[in-house]
Amino acid sequence: MDGVKLQNMLNEYRNLPYPEIKNIYQNHAYANLLYDDLSGELGELSAVTQYVYEHLNIQTEDILSNVLLGIAIQEMKHLNLVGDLIRKMGNKPYLISSKGTYWSSSNIKYQDMPLKDLMNYNIKTEEIAIAGYRKAIQKTRNLEIRKLWDRIIKDEKNHIKIFQEIISELDSECVNEKKT
């Protein structure tokens, strides 16, 4: 694995700030919608714990393990931003889905699988997160909130690019092993 390349990809938006949300009014219905992004089955809390779990289990691959931890930290920032917005809209940032289901560690994929399959699973969950934020964009006219979702989507798309790069490197390593 090219650790420098993956680390550079991870840091691509590090200095791009998240928009500050100042003018928020209570909106319980919109805040309820955000519980899925916060702590739904594939929300930010699940992403954080999934990537920490993967980091812990892939420690024999130092580069990959560190990249997964870095992604988990970015997802923690998203978790904090979504929770803060829910609070500003008048709700408590409970760790529940929009249907009131409590977050559970059963949301984590504990299955052992080849790294390539795991990275494909991660891509799928990032795509679901992006879809959730796009849905949230459609449900508000608040430009500050829309800018926040757009900024988070940039991170999620970047995570997909990182996972795709890892897959590409795994495929390349596999081809090189077959040649020798």
UniProtKB/TrEMBL annotation:
One Pfam family named in its UniProt record: Mn_catalase
Signal peptide per UniProt: none
Family to which this protein belongs: Belongs to the manganese catalase family.
Cofactor: Mn(2+)
Lineage: Bacteria, Bacillati, Bacillota, Clostridia, Candidatus Merdicola
Record-listed Mn(2+) binding positions: E44, E75, H78
Gene3D superfamilies named among the record's database cross-references: 1.20.1260.10
Source organism of the structure: Candidatus Merdicola faecigallinarum
UniProt protein name: Manganese catalase family protein
Record's keyword terms, sorted: Iron, Iron storage, Manganese, Metal-binding
GO biological process: intracellular iron ion homeostasis
Note on cofactor: Binds 2 manganese ions per subunit.
GO terms for MF: ferroxidase activity; heme binding; iron ion binding
InterPro entries listed in its UniProt record: Ferritin-like (IPR012347), Ferritin-like_SF (IPR009078), Mn_catalase (IPR007760)
Cellular component terms per the entry's GO annotation: cytosol
